[in-house]
Amino acid sequence: MSEAGDGGSPSLEAVRALEERLAERLARRSATGAALEAAKEEAERIRAEAQRRGQAAAAEERRRALAEADREAAHIRAEAERRAGELRAAAAARLPETVSVLTAIVLPPAAGGEER
After folding, report:
1. Virtual torsion, Cα 13, 17, 18, 20, nearest 10 deg
2. Quick one: what percent of the chain has pLDDT higher than 90?
3. Residue 4: pLDDT above 60?
4. How many other CB atoms sit within 10 Å of the CB of residue 91?
5. Longest Cα pair distance anywhere in the chain, in angstroms?
6. Whole-angstrom distance, CA of residue 116 vs CA of residue 100
7. Distance, CA of 1 to CA of 13 (rounded, Å)
8. Cβ within 8 Å of residue 104, ≥6 positions away
9. Distance (Å, rounded) from C-alpha 105 to C-alpha 99?
10. pTM to 2 decimals?
C-alpha cells in the first residue's frame, strides 16, 4: 500500500488497479472482437470461393452432359436413318409384287381366266 508521501491513498491505489484491469480486459475484448471479425471475413471469402468453384464445376458438368447427349442423339439419328434406308430398299424391292397384288384386287380378271 502507499504511504501519504507518495501521493496516493490505499483506496486510490485500489481504484487505479481496478481501472488498469478494466482497461486490460477492454483491450483483450477489442483484440478478440477484431480477431473474430477477421475470422468472419475469412470464412465469407472461403464460402464465396467455394460457391464460385461449385458453380464452375456444375457448369462444366452440364457442358459435358450436353455434349454426351448430343453425341448420343447423333448416333440415334444415324441409326434411324440407316434403318429407314433399309425399309425404303425393302419396300422398293417388293414394289412389283405389291403392284401385282393390288392390280389383281382392283381390276377384274381377264376374260377366259380364272375368277377369284
Report:
1. 140
2. 59
3. no
4. 10
5. 158
6. 15
7. 8
8. 116
9. 10
10. 0.49
> Counting every residue, how long is the chain?
116
pLDDT digits (tens, 9 = 90+) for 44-94: 999 999 999 999 999 999 999 999 999 999 999 999 999 999 999 999 999
C-alpha cell at 14: 485500489
**10 Å Cβ neighbour count for 2?**
13
3-state secondary structure of 90: helix
CA dihedral 29, 35, 37, 40 (to 10 degrees): -140
Instruction: Determine contact, residues 109/116, Cβ cutoff 8 Å.
Output: yes
The dihedral built from the CA positions of residue 65, 69, 72 and 74, taken in this order, carries a sign that is negative
